[in-house]
Specification:
Shape: elongated
Strand content: under 5%
Number of strands: 0
Order of helices and strands: HHHHHHHHHHH
Number of helices: 11
Helix content: over 70%
Structural class: mainly alpha
Largest sheet: none
């Protein structure tokens, strides 16, 4: 997406651009990248298609802009800030994050469509790769912080722990989004306890 569009979007977060990006995200979740329709995006936002094309010359531009916005909102650092968890010890952050995974979240649902669309669309694939890289970096920073706080064993591989955490997060969401029988889904208490056990396993020996 051109820089001029991105800067305009940031200046107009409370107005038409914001509504259009939210509408484009909703279209993406419901129909995927290829089947999303610009006129439907405009209708959802309560504007004309001209308002879309005035900001983004092509459908691909508005869809990628919507993805960028969504990804910014669901990166770990932003989520931690939004939930007011910044001051908590890292192990508590990961336990609360794990428990949260069983909750339905419309913003997270976009990942289902992104993974599907990325197979056939280079722009979506590039955005997904960037998001996964940013997510891994931010999770890695949390793991390193945990080591500095004496919560995690410093001998552990940060890359390995980060991959496990990232895999649990994305894997859990994709599995639940695909639909599971209730008997295959643990209670929130059971799930939180299991995540707590996994986090405890990262502590230095003897603790």
């Amino acid at each position: 997406m051109p820089d001029r569009d991105d800067s305009r979007g940031r200046r107009d977060v409370g107005g038409t651009t914001r509504r259009l990006l939210e509408a484009a995200a909703a279209e993406f979740v419901e129909h995927g990248y290829d089947k999303a329709v610009v006129s439907d995006i405009a209708r959802r936002a309560g504007v004309t298609t001209g308002a879309v094309y005035a900001r983004w010359p092509h459908k691909s531009d508005v869809m990628v802009a919507a993805l960028d916005r969504i990804f910014e909102e669901i990166l770990p650092e932003q989520r931690i800030k939004d939930f007011g968890l910044d001051a908590l010890p890292v192990d508590d952050i990961f336990v609360l994050w794990g428990a949260y995974l069983l909750s339905s979240d419309a913003t997270q649902d976009v990942l289902v469509q992104v993974f599907g669309s990325a197979r056939n669309n280079a722009a979506v694939q590039e955005r997904l790769q960037r998001f996964l890289g940013d997510q891994a970096d931010q999770l890695g920073h949390l793991v390193e912080r945990g080591k500095e706080e004496g919560i995690f064993d410093p001998a552990l591989s940060t890359a390995a722990v980060t991959l496990v955490i990232q895999s649990i997060g994305i894997g859990t969401h994709l599995l639940l989004s695909a639909g599971r029988d209730d008997r295959q889904i643990p209670s929130e208490r059971e799930w939180a306890e299991e995540i707590a056990r996994l986090v405890d396993g990262l502590k230095p020996q003897g603790q």
